[in-house]
Design brief:
Elements lengths: L11 E7 L2 E7 L9 H8 L9 E6 L8 E7 L4 E2 L3 H15 L3 E6 L2 E7 L5 E7 L18 E5 L2 E8 L3 E6 L8 H9 L9 E9 L2 E8 L3 E3 L3 H13 L6 E6 L2 E7 L4 E6 L2 E7 L7
Parallel strand pairs: 2-3, 4-6, 11-12, 13-15
Antiparallel strand pairs: 1-2, 1-18, 3-4, 4-5, 6-7, 7-8, 8-17, 9-10, 10-11, 12-13, 13-14, 15-16, 16-17
C-alpha cells in the first residue's frame, strides 16, 4: 500500500500538491470508494473539509499495462478526465510504493507515462496535443489558433485539448487581468460546450512564459499542469517561443516541451503536505 494509506477504514487520505495546485488522494484499489458530488464538494471545502483543487480516487487499472487508474474530481464535484500536476503527484506515490523510477497512470483521457527526474521532480508524457475544433471541443468549426471568443481585454484565443479543453489568451501583463471576473465568463462561453480552462499568458523570452489559469470547475489555482502544456503549445503555434520552455505560474515553474512527434512532456516538483482521516460526517 502507498505510504500513508491503510485499509481505508474511515477514508484515510494523502494531501499533496504540485506548485500549490493541491489534491486529496484516496486509495480505492482494495476497498472501492464511491463519492457523490456533494461528498467531493464537502471534502474539497477549505473551511469545513480537507480543502483541495481536485480529489483523486486511485483504482485498479483497466488496461492491463498501467500501474493505477486515477479518477479525477474537481472541487465543484464534477468528474473530469485529466490533471497534469495530479498525474505527477500520483506517479510519485506509485513509484515510491513500487520502488521504481517509472509509472504508468491510466486516466479517462488515456494512459500517461511518468519517470523520475532530477531534484525529486517527475516528468509526465501528457500525450498528443489535440488541435482540431471537434477535439477541443468547440461549438462550431473555426481556426483553433484564432478562436473568436472575448471578454474585456481578452481576445483572439488559442484552443488546445490536453485531455481537457483550454483557451489561451496572450497578453502584455498577466497581473493586469482580473481572472476572477473574466475567468468564469469565458469558462462558460457558448463556444465551449464542455466549458474550458482559461489561461492568460505573457511571453517573457523565447523560452519563458508567465501564466495564470482559471480552471474549469476549480477556479483560479496556483498552478495548472495541463494549462502549462496548453500555453506552451499555443505559444509555439503562434511562433512566439521555442519548442521547450519554462512556464512560470503563481505557485512555481514547470518545464514543458512539445516534441516534433506531437507529444508534450511536462516536468515539475511534487510534495506531500500531510495525511489524515476524513470525518464520516463529510460524506453525508
Amino acid at each position: 500500500m502507498i505510504d500513508g494509506f491503510s485499509a481505508l477504514a474511515g477514508l484515510e487520505f494523502v494531501k499533496m500538491h504540485g506548485l500549490g495546485n493541491d489534491f486529496v488522494v484516496l486509495d480505492g484499489r482494495n476497498h472501492p470508494v464511491r463519492l457523490s458530488a456533494e461528498a467531493v464538494r464537502a471534502i474539497a471545502d477549505r473551511r469545513a473539509g480537507v480543502g483541495c483543487d481536485q480529489l483523486f480516487v486511485l483504482e485498479k487499472p483497466g488496461n492491463g499495462k498501467a500501474d493505477v487508474f486515477m479518477r479525477i474530481y474537481n472541487s465543484d464535484g464534477g468528474e473530469v478526465a485529466a490533471c497534469g500536476n495530479g498525474a505527477r503527484c500520483v506517479a510519485a506515490l506509485v513509484m515510491k510504493e513500487k520502488g521504481k523510477s517509472d509509472a504508468v497512470i491510466e486516466t479517462a483521457a488515456g494512459s500517461l507515462d511518468a519517470v523520475s527526474a532530477k531534484n525529486g521532480r517527475v516528468t509526465v508524457d501528457m500525450g498528443q496535443a489535440r488541435l482540431g475544433w471537434r477535439d477541443i471541443p468547440l461549438a462550431r468549426e473555426c481556426d483553433t489558433n484564432h478562436v473568436p471568443v472575448s471578454a474585456g481585454p481578452l481576445q483572439d484565443a488559442v484552443s488546445v485539448n490536453m485531455g481537457n479543453p483550454h483557451a489561451v489568451f496572450f497578453v502584455p501583463d498577466v497581473q493586469a487581468i482580473d481572472m476572477r471576473a473574466l475567468g468564469p465568463r469565458l469558462e462558460h462561453d457558448a463556444m465551449f460546450p464542455e466549458r474550458a480552462n482559461i489561461g492568460v499568458a505573457q511571453i517573457l523570452a523565447p523560452s519563458r512564459i508567465r501564466l495564470r489559469v482559471w480552471e474549469r470547475g476549480a477556479g483560479l489555482t496556483l498552478a495548472c499542469g495541463t494549462g502549462a502544456c496548453a500555453a506552451a503549445v499555443a505559444a509555439i503555434r503562434r511562433g512566439l517561443t521555442q519548442r521547450k520552455a519554462t512556464v512560470a505560474l503563481d505557485g512555481g515553474e514547470l518545464e514543458v516541451e512539445w516534441k516534433q512527434d506531437g507529444t508534450v512532456l511536462m516536468t515539475g516538483p511534487v510534495s506531500i503536505s500531510f495525511t489524515g482521516k476524513i470525518d464520516p460526517a463529510l460524506l453525508g
